[in-house]
Sequence to fold (262 residues):
Amino acid sequence: MSLLRNALRALPAYLWSGWGAVASLLLMLAGWEWASLLYGELILPDPRATAQTLARLLSNGDALPELATTARRALAGLGAALVLGSTFGIAAGISMTASMMSRPIMTVLIGTPPIAWLVLAMLWFGAGDGTPVFTVFIACLPVVFVGAMQGARTLDSQLTDMATAYRLPLAMRVLDVHLPHIVSYLFPAWITALGISWKVVVMAELLASSDGVGAALAVSRSHLDTASTLAWIGAVVGLLLAVEYLLFEPLKREIERWRPQS
Fold:
């Protein structure tokens, strides 16, 4: 209950702090409108036409099931990557041996293109959920791992020594000394992985699935329907922004209450 009260109390300031993001989106829409006037509706429909197409997709019930399928796959792969990448990354940051052993593995994972993992996943898992979920997981894992490892490796030894000298309880040592520093590295990695997960899942669905936003994009491409293509892109980007600013950002602010918020 106290967490909920703190979140509600901080909500007005959080909403006000989003004016910069709103301004940037408005500038992007203005640029989009200008490009539409320059190149024509056939090449680039304007934001209003795209919004009308998206509203039609939502009203006739076509959009929500596809968005839900894409979100489920993206969040499943991302969730597995966050849990395993954070856990093993922190372990690698603490242990030099684990760090040296994991470095070539992470190099291989980062250097292998997601499309290559997608082809392998299609051979291993077929056309079900396993292909996009695995591809998202394997694309996000090294990003989260490296962030967690750097956070654990750069812990201030003086703070650790002070905590030991004052005999702080283990829970206080973890929550008040180690966790804030590690989280400052983890959250940027998580946000990066979130963006990667959305891009990769749509790509995987486009090539390997019969449902989801990627499959809907394949249909709109085959019909040369630019407005529907932009509507689907806008829907999935809007869902991504909602997850980031309604879930990750409030969680980050709650955990990092000690840090001045900009």
In short: The first helix runs from residue 2 to 16.
